[in-house]
Design a protein that fits this description.
This protein is an alpha/beta fold and 246 residues long. Helices cover 47% and strands 12% of the residues.
Length: 246
């Protein structure tokens, strides 16, 4: 995707593969039909010169409508579209389709299974993160621009893995849910510390932290989710009382 006016985005390249066979159906530039504000070259690898060359050489669709027409040569209303965050792709192609499998939704629903059909998922994971943590597959790494074709294959690999390995998907989801809980706990603690800043000196705080740590055998250095309120609660202090204030 590249940026155009009014904070919108449009298609600059399209890749589509057959999910079952892995055959490449489309992998082609798409010439923008309006002024480009941001080519997002570091991400897309596309510059104005690259697009101009592709257009002149016939290696680009004339616009997104032509790209959509070519896509429909391989699909119809009964086709299942598979992708990552497909809503963005379908939007720029002007397509409304209700037969989809979205790897972003599939993996996020594994983490948040209680989310209702009309509720928004608390968060989704990027294709890069899912491919790495679930498949140990590196994509979109280093200074290289994204490859739409490689991303398409990565989505296929993720979906196939999830279908074939439900227990491993469940284990992956449990780890992600635990991480989310730890992040939320850490965020709440930071908020409490900001609202109730201690008046003790830094040296005094460090001393009292060591005492508290030794007494309850916590290792703060090994626990990046350190939360003062939890330690205070374990020490028997009432909620909201700051034992370190003067």
């Amino acid at each position: 995707m590249i940026g155009v006016k009014d904070n919108r985005q449009t298609l600059a390249f399209i890749s589509a593969i057959d999910f079952l066979t892995g055959d490449v159906l489309i992998s082609r530039y798409v010439a923008p039909s309006e002024e480009v504000i941001d080519w997002r070259s570091k991400i897309t690898g596309i510059t104005q010169d690259v697009m101009t060359s592709a257009t002149i050489s016939g290696a680009a669709f004339r616009n997104w409508r032509e790209a959509r027409e070519n896509l429909w040569q391989f699909a119809d209303t009964s086709t299942v579209f598979v992708g990552q965050s497909l809503n963005y792709d379908l939007e720029v192609l002007g397509i409304c389709h209700n037969r989809i499998v979205d790897s972003a939704i599939l993996t996020a629903e594994a983490v948040f299974p209680a989310t209702g059909p009309t509720e928004s998922l608390p968060r989704v994971w990027s294709l890069k993160a899912v491919a790495k943590t679930l498949l140990d597959l590196d994509i979109q790494s280093g200074d290289r621009a994204h490859s739409a074709l490689r991303d398409a294959y990565a989505v296929r690999d993720v979906i196939i893995f999830c279908i074939r390995n439900p227990e491993q998907l469940k284990s992956w989801a449990e780890l992600r849910k635990k991480e989310e809980g730890q992040k939320g706990k850490k965020s709440r603690c930071k908020s409490k510390v900001k609202r109730n800043p201690t008046t003790s000196s830094t040296q005094d705080i460090q001393h009292k932290t060591r005492v508290l740590k030794d007494e309850f055998e916590y290792d703060i250095d090994d626990d990046d989710e350190f939360c003062l309120s939890e330690y205070a609660r374990d020490a028997g202090w009432p909620d909201g009382w700051d034992p370190w204030s003067d």
